Amino acid sequence: RNKTMAVRSMLDEMVGVGDAVLLEPLSEDNFLDNLQKRFQHDEIYTYIGNVVVSTNPYKTLPIYDAEMIEKYRGRNLYELPPHIYAVSDLAYRSMKNYGRDQCIMITGESGSGKTEASKLVMKYVAAMSSRSTEVETIKQQLLQSNPVLEAFGNARTNRNDNSSRFGKYMDIEFDFKGDPVGGLITNYLLEKSRVVRHGEGERNFHIFYQILCGASPTMLKKLKLENVENFSYIKQLDANPEDAKSFNEVLNAFDIIGFSRSEVDNVLMLVAAVLKLGNIRFKAISAKNGMDNCTITNMEEHPEVADICEMLSIKPHNLTSALTERTMTARKESVTCTLSANEASYNRDALCKEIYDRLFTWLVNRINSSIKVTTQTNKKCKVMGVLDIYGFEVFEQNGFEQFMINYCNEKLQQIFVELTLREEQEEYVKEGIEWLHIDYFNNAIICQLIESPRSGILSMLDEECLRPGDVTDATLLTKLETVCGKHEHFESRRDTRFLGDKTLPHNAFRIQHYAGKVTYVVENFIDKNNNSLFRNLSTAAFLSLHPLLGGAKGLFPEGDPLTTMLKRPPTSATQFKASMTALMKNLLMKNPNYIRCIKPNEVKRSSVFSSDLVRHQVRYLGLMENVRVRRAGYAFRQKYEDCITRYKMLSTKTWPSWHGPPKEGVKQILLKTKIDPEQYEYGKSKIFIRNPRTLFKLEEYRNAALHDIATTIQKTWRGYHHWKLFQIMRQAQIVISKTVKRHQNQQRYLKLKSATIVMQCFIRGWKSTFRLRNFYSGIRSTQSTFSLRNFYSGISQSTFSLRNFYSGIRSTQSTFSLRNFYSGIRSARCLLRAYKLHKLQCISVSIIAAHWKGYTTRREYRKFFRANAGKVIAKFMEKYVVYLYLTKTRDSLPSSSPIDKKWSSCKYQFLSSTHPILRDLFHKWRCMKYRKGLTPQRKTELSEKLHASNLFKGKKSLYPSSLVQKFVGDHVTLSSNQKWRKVGGGAIIIFADEGFKIHRNNGKFVSCYIVMTDNAVLLLEEKSLKQKCRVAVHDISGVSFSPYQDGMMILHCKPPAESKKHKGDLILNVAHSIELATKMSLLVEKSTNQKLSCIIEQNFMVDLKCKSPMSLQFNEPSARVVGGPTVKKNKHMFIVGLPVNGVSPSG
Prior knowledge:
1147 residues; Kinesin; Methane Monooxygenase Hydroxylase, Chain G, domain 1; PH-domain like; 7-stranded mixed β-sheet; 31 helices; 49% helix; 15% strand; elongated
């Protein structure tokens, strides 16, 4: 992999500030604004030095795939944008390359994403190691421990659907190659009270619902759960379809970790036994001595006791006596007394909690036995710890659990500040920089208040639990007020300073933690701290034949009846304090890395950022304190090599490359930029910058230099590009020139060849004519010679005859022959001359006749050609032009989509009227084809979109953005919710979404589900689906909107005819308001045959059934409004403030 490849730095294209240390000016408001800005751009990670602040996005982001893991592998912390992988890689490389044990501490409140963060760390570390079979097995065992522990230790709360109700610290051990070889898990303070009771809207631990939903009928029958419909400890309606899938994942994880089938069956048997134990009921009876006794209700009719005894392998008598009786031993004497019904119920709950708590501890130990490192390799191992522990908790009523959790967070904050300062000091000393004293709040005084051996709250709590006599929560509070009342961080109503503080109840005390003040109600402090069972219960459990529950190696070894244990077991506070001490000692031995998780809102939505909630978390996580510690000396530090790589373009001596010592190169850069020497300091390997403004100034210089460099690169590239283009054109010109010249020479040659052939033809013709003429001349000479010969022969004959004549003395016959000879010659010549003349006359007559015939024919048809030829040619040309037009139109037809507006242009004026007709015909044809291809569901969607256009187009600014959004209807999948099937009464859901109802008295946003069925509009509570308001369809008179980009809508209601209760109009805020109004309009029109009135104005009246009429006024969108709309009540008017960006509704 090329390490020099160009990558995006943390400072490039930065949304807000990637490292809060660089904030300028530094304030809590600026810190929150920076987190919000990055959160809204899906930049959920922000640095504070080497600390990662993670904001829960409440949605899946594409930033955790294998490509992203490879991108962060081996990179420096500031080389890429902030990411949890960057911190994981830093910890892994420090452990592998430098042999330093590491710890990644993940903290934050419930719902902030701690569990997911720990999974991502494990995923990254697993991806870094090799792919051998043995290593893959260990990695899978480490990763699969999460589903098991989540099933048994996580539950749904009002703040988080998968909240960890225990603390977990996992040590992952690696060999010298960086491959995992094993691990060790430590758990802290399981919330075992959740087994028997949990808050409204919450669930018990996941495993109970997973068994009921995912177990096969055979397994349910084996667990005695097949015929049980109701359970005291859980509500089966709280189960969801994901539980069945999760149960299969848990079984698969058991198999991968190495659990045997019998072990899995025994674990599930104990979980089922806890469920059935909760169904046991007790009936109060009066004894003869007047004491309240009890007995188990309807043992014969309800087989729970028999089933439990069979499942736990306990004798029925032992179980019933253990639940209803208590045996006390003192001085070798035993006294047995019967419990009242309330005491027996408490006894049963205590047994269930203890079984589940010890089962969870057994599971952790069993997993550790599978993933532990062998003795041979243990000495060579390096460790990376991952701490996933509960964050600071502040509820409306805080009890013993919150007190212990917040004590843990005080200890973590103490070690966090201590290790951060130590790390800073070590870096300063290593780099040769003078260490400056940093003032910070040391919370050691709060830790002493809680854990001091003599006067601490935990010591007072243990002392009160062990004290004989009447011990109650009230006596504990009195003792705390006496011992700790003078402490500056302890408050109670007994103190004269707080006598008038009505926010502090009389049965509570308040501690001023580093994160703020928390009030603790002392109710059940004594009970929850006493970590003991009645002897009868532990003995009954010990006598069980169940492989996990009974025996000396079982969950209750102290219940052995042969041993007498008078020593009380350690209290919960003592155990937790000891575990915290061990944890702190372990953390101090490792190099720390921090991930601080933040919950952005209480409604678990991806687009909502509650500033007040985040501000509270920032304070109790001590993030501002951390920023101040990092900024106290030097706000930014960077290696010389990285500094040169980033800023080398600022000096001509270092650009484009620097070959000298890196430190000297950085000096050249700072001298060139004329930075004040007091603003930076040279370390041994790093440059330290004091003020963020100096860094930002360097960034400005760098951006300007990059602009100049980019201009130079563009200029050079364009010159090169055009030079290459010129070379290509030149080569093309040469080729074209060669081709043209060749073509021209070819044509010239062909012409010369043609002329030569013609000349040859003429010459050959002339030669042939000459030869013919000579031939004819020869023939004539031959004929003349022959004739002359004949003539002379005739003369000779004549002379002979004449001689004979003369000799015959001029005889008459000779004279007659000579006369005939001369007349024959004369007549032959005349005949030859006449033949030649006749032949010439025939040829002339033929030529003259042909010319005359052609002339007369042309003259005859000339009048017809002039009259009709123009029309024929014009008609032909017209048909040809139409043919060209139709061909071009056919070849340039647009797509078959009805929304495609493209259409070719027409350059023929006589077809200008035909062109739009063809366009309309084509559009109608493709619309017809599109309509025929639509499904009924799609037709319904388009009709709804058309109706929405009629209602809102050109009237409301939000309408254009709703065009691309599909009308889903049920946005929250309410129809698949088990609670809705019970509450809805079979009504058909037309629309359902999360939204807000604006309170008519104070304008506050109240979160709810907005549901429209086929007969009414309902407002339901989000958790319980309890109906808050119902408006029948025929009682809806209209809706009103503002013209802006908001989701506010007013539902105008008529008074119902059958009921006198009418609260007036409803003011709602819903993200998909366009869809709701459209579906509502169609439903009202279908039900009442009347159109729904839709008003879109800036101001309008609302009927809230107040003494005087109320109006609603929408202000212009303003940048001052952040997040979502705000509503303020001003006498007889609601004033609505809107954000500029038109974000989704938020409270």
